[in-house]
Amino acid sequence: MSDLSGVKALVFDVFGTVVDWRTSLIDDFTKWGETRGIKADWTALVDGWRAVYAASMDEVRKNPQNGYVILDVLHRRSLEKLVAQFDIKGLSEADLQHLTLGWHRLHAWPDSVAGLTRLKTKYIISPLSNGNVALLTNMAKFAGLPWDLVMSAELFEHYKPDPETYLGAAKLLCLPPEQVMMVAAHNYDLKHAQKLGLKTAFVARPTEYGPLQKYDFEATGEWDIVAKDFGEIASRMGC
């Protein structure tokens, strides 16, 4: 058993860990498309969009001379390519903006808000996400996420899993890394956080990618907590 008595704050991956991005976007776009009379394979669009997510951030890393680019802008660039690729016709500038901001309108997993609310009674809770500050703030309003503050890769101008994100979060909280716990549904995220001294909690989200899920069905590392949902994390942390 890990000694978690020193933990003061929990920081959370968001996409897939706190919110169900795939179902949220597919349902949102399907309903919207019907009202606008726009036909498209929205499931394929959403899956294709997420599939290029990592590569879009890698482009920022590889080209530091171009400066940091927030996720909203990366999402919009990817969307424009996908709309052309899927031959989706009749989209105005306002339509493209509405679709891009779909990432601001994601619903939480059923256990997220209750579990976060319990954890907030004893700990500082915050996202530590590649989403930009406006995206994460709007999402919290939409989904009722009770964060104490919003920490984003944008604050550090580095995307996870760059060390600057994890260490930057601890520094902003004026805490040593070992007093911060990273919570994620992705083993790779926890691996990078653990290397830098953060505590770790894994929660499985086996339907995050729907039928396309290939990994993260279970914990693959020696994490401090492995839980079925946020409620179990709260119980383990004495909330």
TrEMBL record:
Keywords annotated in UniProt: Hydrolase
Key word Hydrolase present: yes
Domain of life per record: Bacteria
Keyword Ion transport found: no
Signal peptide (UniProt feature, chain positions): none
MF term (GO), any: hydrolase activity, acting on acid halide bonds, in C-halide compounds
NCBIfam families, alphabetized: HAD-SF-IA-v2 (TIGR01493), HAD_type_II (TIGR01428)
Protein name: Haloacid dehalogenase type II
Organism of this sequence: Bradyrhizobium pachyrhizi
